Every structure is written in structure tokens, then in C-alpha cells.
């Protein structure tokens, strides 16, 4: 029988948990994926209470020794020598009944995940499209349709398409700008006729000195300062007031605004951006007097009203049918680029954010694309597409046909087709995740605890059957892969069978995405 220790703590009372010899820990903060796992002597600390991360956070850690640590509230954690030192706001739970990483993750799922439902299958079936890199802040009907037609005209299948920021006149008026979209309903219908599902960008900010702002302010439906006036916070698009979604009137107002847009134009869902804890303060006044992390949690919970949703930030809400993407990555091979897609994605999965998207192919950090017309690294875009092809979801933004020559474009089409070829398998894994809490993309150590640590961030398992080892280095002619014991057959060549039990150098060229299925 499992034994769960309840470790009561305050921020003034420190708790110490010894790290076992050879034990490695994952969890906490998705953005810290590249530094996971940590162990004895690691230089790692995480202050969840004051954390300003642009991605998902869960108050939980799990280890390769089968131990699971969690709490209902954020806590601080630091490795000191051979110990974990922890201080929290509420009861900490430590379960030591497991033997390996899978045991620990499944304990966490049983104790903290919301199971039972997954997002619509369309998220997993085909490559998604977001017009952000192409249109940026110049959203308009003509160019949205041009982008959509470019997708199908160049050999890609229509999937979900997202219309990004500035399709409305300002924040808080969630209606298509008539200047930019003279016939929004007709546009959405045309996109539907082409085979697309349509999502649009939204956020919890309200532009000051607008009719919506004045109305919300007068009814005390915005987050306020102690004197009862709305807080005005700086964010990446200037300054804005914040919806108090803990107020039932505000919640109903926002839901009505979005459902009205759906009814009038036919859009299918919403990309929910912002909501970061850094935009809130624990001293803010709200109806339920929520902390900054609880505001982020509530922002995520709101998305459950809309099956077609996407989030960049979340606190808790693990296992819920919410699509969680990675933060905007840079157009880079290394730091904050391609090399971080695997560790970040695996951290998402272990924590329960397994309905995940590894950001836009090539990266969603738009400044990486400014002033580079004709000078983009085409190989990086191909490798980014290949890396995402056998993950839960893949999403394009920069138009491959605009920035790639025929050779590289064909390889991106091939990567998108590969994702579609494995859609039934991926959807089955998503269905399993909804039932059990098991990740879709999994660390090697989840299925094969004996995997050397050197391979923890360069390859992964898609479910229990498929080993995927994307090429992550520019100009690579080979990829060193660890094959667990057994026979592994290449998904590209049935005659290519590897007998596992160690590592092997596999030759690669630009067209190669090393992936193997266990056949015994």
C-alpha cells in the first residue's frame, strides 16, 4: 500500500528531503527542461512563488527512484549538496511507493491530474497553422486568405489555422475589425470550405479609455488596487487593465463576448495568450482575492469553456483538455531554439501538460525573422519540422513556400505527411493520456530506466513503441542513438533493423528523421 507523507510547512519552516544516490528529479517548471533532471550536487533552485516564467508551472516533482512530491500551492525548492530543501505555502505530499520514473509520474497523475477528456482530435491529426510570423501585427482578411490558400496550393493539408493578434480594433472589444476584415463571416466560411478549423487570438487585457474599459471599471469587473481603481499593467503591447475572472459577472461577460463572436462569424475556438503570473500581484484586489499563480490557474480553467483552445502559460490544470504550447522559441539551433524542444516537451508531458505543441516550426519569436529575408537557415526549418513531426502536435507559422527552395520545402511537406501518417497512433496515445495520465511523448527513462543520462535530451519515446531521435545539429552526417535491448526497425526501411542494448552511430542526411519501432 502506498504511503504518502504529509509534510506541513510554512515559508519560514524549511523541509529537507535526502536525494538518493543515482536518483534524478524532473518537474516543476517547463522552461527548466534543459537543466532537468537534477541530482545530488546539482546547481538548481526554483522559486515558484515569485516565478515569472513564460510557460507552464506545476507544484510537483518526480524522480527516477519512484518518488513524487507535490502541493496544492507553489513552493520553493533548492538542491543543497545531497538534499532537497523545500519551503511551501501549504501541505507538501511525498509519495515514496514507486520504483522508477513511470511509477512516480503515475502517482502524480492519480493525485493531481484532471482526467477523462482530451482536446479535439483535429489538434493531433494534421499540422496546425498560425499566421503570426507571416502577418505579425498586420492581420487582415486578404492576407489571411492568401496564407490559407498558400498552404493547400503548395501541397500541405488544411488543419487548424490560427489568426493571431490584432484582428480586433483593440483589447476588450472581441469583434473583427471591419477595417481589416470587411466580411469576417464570409472569410471564416471560406476557410471552413477549404477544410480548416479557425481559431483567433485573445487575452485577458482591456485597453484603457475605451467603452468596454469604462463599463467594466464602473461595475468593478477588473482587477483593482486597494483604493478600488483598476490596476493598469505594462505588457508587451503597451498598457492594459486586467479582467477579474474570479468575478462571476466578468467571467460571464468574457464568455459571452467570445461565444457571440463564434455565433456571428463561425470561428471554432481561441488562442489564449498572456495570463502570465508576472502580470498580476498577490496584493491585487479581486473578488476571490487570488494570488498571482491562482490568477494564471483561473485563466487556464476559463479555456475549458472552449474545446478548441491553446495556452502558453498555465499553473496546475494538469491533465485537463487544454492545448499547451511551448514559449516562443528563437530561430536558433541552440539556446532557446531547436535544442530545447525535446527537454521542454518531455517536461510538459511528465507534469501533465501532454496535449502539447512544440512551438511554431522554426520558432515563434518574431524578432528572429526580422531583416532576414532570403537569409534564413533552410536546414534549421527542416530539422525543426522533423523534430515536431512525431510529437503530439506540430505547427507551422513562417510560410515554408516563401522562405524555402523546392528541396527544403518538399522535406517540410514530407514531415507534415509523416505526422498525418501517425495520427491514429498519436490520437490513441492522447486517448490513453485522458484515461491514465501517461504522457504522449515520453523520456527514454520513462520506458527504459537504464538509458544513459547522455541521451535524455536528444531522443524520446512516442508512446511505448516508437523511438524518435531527431537531428539537432547543423550539418550533421550521423546521429548517436541509444537503443534499449530488443530489436528496433526503422519506420522508413523495414530492412533496417538494429539489435539494441547500447548506442550506435546512425548515418543521416537532410531527409533523415531517425525513428524506430520496437518489433520484439
From TrEMBL:
Q: Identify the keywords attached in UniProt to this record, alphabetized.
A: Glycosidase, Hydrolase
InterPro entries per the UniProt record, alphabetical: Alpha-glycosidase_related, GH, Glyco_hydro_31_C, Glyco_hydro_31_TIM, Glyco_hydro_b
GO molecular function ontology, one term from the record: hydrolase activity, hydrolyzing O-glycosyl compounds
* Top-rank taxon, per record: Bacteria
Q: Name one Pfam family in it.
A: Glyco_hydro_31_2nd
Q: Where is the signal peptide?
A: none
Residues of the Glycoside hydrolase family 31 TIM barrel domain: 137-288
Biological process (GO) annotations held by this record are: carbohydrate metabolic process
Q: Per the database record, which ranges form the Glycosyl hydrolase family 31 C-terminal domain?
A: 437-518
Q: Which PANTHER family match?
A: GLYCOSIDASE FAMILY 31, MYOGENESIS-REGULATING GLYCOSIDASE
UniProt lists the family membership as follows: Belongs to the glycosyl hydrolase 31 family.
Q: What is this protein called?
A: Glycoside hydrolase
Amino acid at each position: 500500500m502506498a504511503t504518502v507523507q504529509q509534510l506541513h510547512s510554512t515559508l519560514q519552516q524549511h523541509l529537507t528531503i535526502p536525494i538518493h544516490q543515482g536518483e534524478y528529479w524532473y518537474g516543476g517548471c517547463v522552461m527548466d527542461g534543459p537543466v532537468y533532471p537534477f541530482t545530488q550536487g546539482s546547481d538548481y533552485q526554483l522559486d515558484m512563488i515569485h516565478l515569472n516564467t513564460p510557460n507552464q508551472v506545476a507544484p510537483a516533482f518526480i524522480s527516477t527512484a519512484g518518488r513524487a512530491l507535490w502541493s496544492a500551492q507553489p513552493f520553493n525548492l533548492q538542491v543543497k549538496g545531497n538534499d532537497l530543501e523545500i519551503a511551501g505555502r501549504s501541505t507538501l505530499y511525498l509519495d515514496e511507493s514507486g520504483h522508477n520514473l513511470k511509477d512516480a509520474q503515475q502517482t502524480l497523475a492519480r493525485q493531481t491530474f484532471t482526467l477523462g477528456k482530451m482536446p479535439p482530435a483535429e489538434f493531433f491529426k494534421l499540422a496546425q497553422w498560425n499566421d503570426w510570423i507571416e502577418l505579425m501585427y498586420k492581420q487582415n482578411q486578404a492576407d489571411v486568405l492568401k496564407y490559407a490558400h498558400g498552404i493547400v496550393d503548395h501541397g500541405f493539408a488544411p488543419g487548424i489555422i490560427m489568426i493571431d493578434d490584432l484582428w480586433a480594433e483593440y483589447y476588450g472589444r472581441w469583434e473583427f475589425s471591419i477595417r481589416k476584415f470587411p466580411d469576417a463571416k464570409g472569410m471564416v466560411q471560406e476557410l471552413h470550405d477549404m477544410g480548416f478549423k479557425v481559431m483567433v487570438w485573445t487575452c485577458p487585457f482591456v485597453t484603457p479609455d475605451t467603452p468596454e474599459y469604462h463599463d467594466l471599471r464602473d461595475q468593478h469587473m477588473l482587477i483593482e488596487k486597494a483604493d478600488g481603481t483598476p490596476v493598469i499593467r505594462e505588457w508587451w503591447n503597451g498598457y492594459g487593465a486586467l479582467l477579474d475572472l474570479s468575478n462571476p459577472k466578468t467571467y460571464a461577460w468574457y464568455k459571452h463576448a467570445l461565444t457571440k463572436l463564434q455565433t456571428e462569424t463561425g470561428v471554432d475556438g481561441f488562442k489564449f495568450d498572456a495570463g502570465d503570473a508576472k502580470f498580476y500581484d498577490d496584493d491585487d484586489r479581486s473578488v476571490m482575492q487570488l494570488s498571482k499563480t491562482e490568477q494564471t490557474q483561473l485563466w487556464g480553467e476559463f479555456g475549458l469553456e472552449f474545446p478548441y483552445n491553446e495556452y502558453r502559460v498555465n499553473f496546475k490544470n494538469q491533465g485537463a483538455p487544454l492545448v499547451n504550447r511551448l514559449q516562443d522559441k528563437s530561430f536558433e539551433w541552440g539556446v532557446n531554439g531547436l535544442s530545447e524542444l525535446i527537454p521542454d516537451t518531455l517536461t510538459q508531458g511528465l507534469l501533465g501538460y501532454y496535449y502539447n505543441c512544440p512551438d511554431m516550426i522554426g520558432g515563434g519569436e518574431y524578432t528572429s525573422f526580422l531583416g532576414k529575408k532570403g537569409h534564413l537557415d533552410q536546414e534549421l526549418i527542416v530539422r525543426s519540422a522533423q523534430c515536431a513531426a512525431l510529437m503530439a502536435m506540430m505547427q507551422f507559422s513562417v510560410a515554408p513556400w516563401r522562405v524555402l527552395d523546392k528541396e527544403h520545402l518538399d522535406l517540410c511537406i514530407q514531415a507534415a505527411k509523416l505526422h498525418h501518417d501517425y495520427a491514429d497512433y498519436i490520437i490513441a496515445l492522447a486517448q490513453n493520456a485522458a484515461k491514465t495520465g501517461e504522457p504522449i511523448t515520453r523520456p527514454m527513462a520513462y520506458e527504459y530506466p537504464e538509458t544513459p543520462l547522455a541521451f535524455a535530451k536528444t531522443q524520446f519515446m512516442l508512446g511505448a513503441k516508437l523511438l524518435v531521435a531527431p537531428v539537432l545539429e547543423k550539418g550533421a552526417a550521423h546521429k548517436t542513438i541509444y537503443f534499449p535491448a530488443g530489436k528496433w526497425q526503422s519506420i522508413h526501411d523495414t530492412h533496417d533493423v538494429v539489435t539494441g542494448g547500447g548506442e550506435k552511430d546512425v548515418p543521416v542526411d537532410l531527409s533523415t528523421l531517425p525513428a524506430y519501432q520496437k518489433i520484439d
